[in-house]
Amino acid sequence: MDLIVQKFGGTSLSDDQSRRHVLRHIIRELEAGNQLVVVVSAMGRSGDPYATDSLLDLIRGRGDALPPRERDLLLSCGELISAAVLCNLLQAEGFPSVVLTGGQAGIRTDDHYGSARILEINGERIRKHLSAREVVIVTGFQGMTRDGEVTTLGRGGSDTSATALGVALKANIVDIYTDVDGILTADPRWVSDARPLTAVSYEEICNMAQNGAKVIHPRAVEIAMKAGVPVRVRSTFSDSEGTLVTNAQALRSQGIWYDRTVTGLAHVKNVTQLSVVNHDGPADLQLRVFRAMASHGISVDFINVMPTGVHYTVSDSDAPLAVRLLAELGFEPQVRRGCAKVSVIGGGMNGEPGVMAVIVEALTAAGIPILQSADSNTTIWVLISETDLAEALQALHSAFGLHLTPNRRNIEEEVGL
Amino acid sequence: MDLIVQKFGGTSLSDDQSRRHVLRHIIRELEAGNQLVVVVSAMGRSGDPYATDSLLDLIRGRGDALPPRERDLLLSCGELISAAVLCNLLQAEGFPSVVLTGGQAGIRTDDHYGSARILEINGERIRKHLSAREVVIVTGFQGMTRDGEVTTLGRGGSDTSATALGVALKANIVDIYTDVDGILTADPRWVSDARPLTAVSYEEICNMAQNGAKVIHPRAVEIAMKAGVPVRVRSTFSDSEGTLVTNAQALRSQGIWYDRTVTGLAHVKNVTQLSVVNHDGPADLQLRVFRAMASHGISVDFINVMPTGVHYTVSDSDAPLAVRLLAELGFEPQVRRGCAKVSVIGGGMNGEPGVMAVIVEALTAAGIPILQSADSNTTIWVLISETDLAEALQALHSAFGLHLTPNRRNIEEEVGL
């Protein structure tokens, strides 16, 4: 008997038909004899009356003056409503179930309303209900302070609720149900032959999420990673097994590590490149530039400090402010709007020679200029023009053979470990 | 400085325009230097997505199997949402305010989900916020068990929340805002010259509410009555003072008791009269009849036991079952469907001779047969045909001069007390 945490997002709970699929996944695990904790998001997408955005619309344009504590109270209704709807369906099918708010589920947080951190989880009450053979439905995205105040964990918070509960309850697996068949090698809206991955490591999925892939919240992955609880990202609307996320050792020991150097691609659009040239200027140019950005809360990326000056990127929306700040410091930066950052991600590229060569070759062959680049031991980033994005993603996807279904081969045999 | 509890119903909170009126009443009291606890119902009427009925619609027709505990969790969202919306408006106008759930407001209840009883109220937290010059917005209709479970108080529960808080906080007054100008002498949809009453006693309003007038929940009145906290029923949409509800002594001492024997009329439609005749039947006829009704949960009214048989009324919807039960006992009742019960209510009629005479005279003059009658020391009930209802109400309203604005005269002078 396994203990499984399932998390269903808003799209999976948006209408009767989707909720039938949700029921199917729950009942399958129950009939296999497993214990189930089901974490739910608010129902539906923007436009549905009980979606998080719709609740916020009750405030927006009406003064927008709701204090953070009350904002969290308001938002907590979204998950409560979808939890009750799911509970009703399960009961009607004859499966006893109970709804617990984040607080009732034992999730204690600090009091940073809107982005509270989980301090600890007391799983006692959940375990009691599981022992009584009940499905425990927990409202995602929310917790409670020690003083009994309702808090929310910020966007992506239901993923965090799910993995944190998985860790606290020592679950066998945390299944994150979404509307795609797992984690894909690239965004299928941009790369026609993108395909689902069978398995990735925690580090890889973190890199993907941090670099623009909308798969699972990075904080949720970090929590699972620390405790080594395996996560599966899978589709509500199919019976596909989805993508297993665990640590590299576990993947190797299960023989499902591939002979791959590159796992997938991610990208971020709407990036502006700023270049500040150092014409006999002060030696503390970079210090003054980044201090100005930081003091105004502008996130910077792709920082490249050279004797001749500084290159870095900001979001297109922050660009006008950044340029004004630089002007106040007496600098006239070169500004290139409409750039895109492409991330080539692979836990297996560490120390592998030639990855950068493949990237340069593929982009050059496609006539795409590389505006800037950076690398870590698991990711290489290139900055290109947004107009080149579709072609660049397709070219890199093909160059690394990501469209090919890999053989299940143990990398340990391959590299003789 | 007074401490005032204000309660706003769903219609008062249903749209931006109504909420402007709500704000007006709140700000008026704040500017007069008063402390305010504002109790809110769920927004809007049936059809609005956040109304109580709409939340229930998420369950209805989808198995209807939600356990009572989870049903209360779901319903509690209605008031939370309207409380947050009101808090936002107040903050935007520069008035600090805080939202407290029933539990956070210190309302402890038993665990009879759906119709929980208030066990005690700890007003400490509310007082703390009031001292900090904050408007305290409390979600009506709900409380919390000692174990931290959310409960609801049943229909009309926001009125109960308001008067119970008024008692616990020793409020100077509880203002129940609704969509009519206080308590009227009769239902204005039936009696064209019905007019608002300046003051009534707790007993009178209880009688009205129990006899079909939709003014304020009887349980709420009982709570206020026990502690002697005055209540005002008034309109959100006007500046009328509404109707003061307090005890007869207080009304007398303030000189606002009228020389009236009859205060108002109330009525209930869709009543069926059943007559079971005792043809040499068993002596325990009435026992067998009422035992059968009770065992099937049928409410009976207008019971009239005579040597010749039994007359009583049930609702039209219970009538078919009642007739079947009587047939099973071997009785063939006379059945008169489509009756109406008219209540003539007045705290001053106790011992006053001639009230029944006025009723009989008015109805006889209008050619309306009285099918049955009953009386207590503050109310006389007559059963008539529903087709005669409009004419009967108008005739009685005129006969007792309820359309005339009374002089403010102290009954003590009148009766020489």
UniProtKB/TrEMBL annotation, chains A, B:
ATP binds at residues 7-10, 178-179, 189, 214-215. GO terms for molecular function: aspartate kinase activity; ATP binding. GO terms for biological process: diaminopimelate biosynthetic process; homoserine biosynthetic process; lysine biosynthetic process via diaminopimelate; threonine biosynthetic process. Pathway: Amino-acid biosynthesis; L-methionine biosynthesis via de novo pathway; L-homoserine from L-aspartate: step 1/3; Amino-acid biosynthesis; L-lysine biosynthesis via DAP pathway; (S)-tetrahydrodipicolinate from L-aspartate: step 1/4; Amino-acid biosynthesis; L-threonine biosynthesis; L-threonine from L-aspartate: step 1/5. Signal peptide: none annotated. Keywords: Amino-acid biosynthesis, ATP-binding, Diaminopimelate biosynthesis, Kinase, Lysine biosynthesis, Nucleotide-binding, Transferase. Its EC number is 2.7.2.4. It comes from the Bacteria. Substrate binds at residues 52, 79. It is an enzyme of class 2 (transferase). GO terms for cellular component: cytosol. It catalyses: L-aspartate + ATP = 4-phospho-L-aspartate + ADP. Residues 344-411 form the ACT domain. Belongs to the aspartokinase family. Catalyzes the phosphorylation of the beta-carboxyl group of aspartic acid with ATP to yield 4-phospho-L-aspartate, which is involved in the branched biosynthetic pathway leading to the biosynthesis of amino acids threonine, isoleucine and methionine. This is Aspartokinase. It comes from Cohnella terricola.
